């Protein structure tokens, strides 16, 4: 039974994001025995979670999850509910607050999808948040202090009992991500 890495992209992103592509290239080159599942997530929270849960429910064999930004939020929920290991990269800890500034019409630059982000979607995110994760020993936080989108201190507080790698500088894209691909796979025990 092949192991699977579930990679979850962030808000208004896609499987064509730089980190998703770097992980796919790493697996193809060094770990072709691991299957990469990197879905185009639905734009709205309840639909995205429904999609993620259906994927997790359908996986046979061992799997781990990695997610960036909003994908880190989802990866934490997967770790909590499915008992797997997760790597969260510059994760959104409180997207129901953060994305409150983004309400209104949205355009996903990767897919061209247009949709409207509403306060109802913020309520969905709040309801889906893992308020007190019991899975922190199975989570690795990769965080750069120079993240211009998220306050890195929120992640340090929320994931304080997880394995933590904090770097000065960087940005929301997590500069140098390609140097972590092999370590991510080892942490996920795939």
UniProtKB/TrEMBL annotation:
Coiled coil: none annotated. InterPro entries: AB_hydrolase_fold, UPF0227/Esterase_YqiA. SUPFAM superfamilies: alpha/beta-Hydrolases. It comes from the Bacteria. It holds the Pfam family UPF0227. Gene3D superfamilies: alpha/beta hydrolase. This is Esterase. It comes from Zobellella denitrificans. The lineage of its organism: Bacteria, Pseudomonadati, Pseudomonadota, Gammaproteobacteria, Aeromonadales.
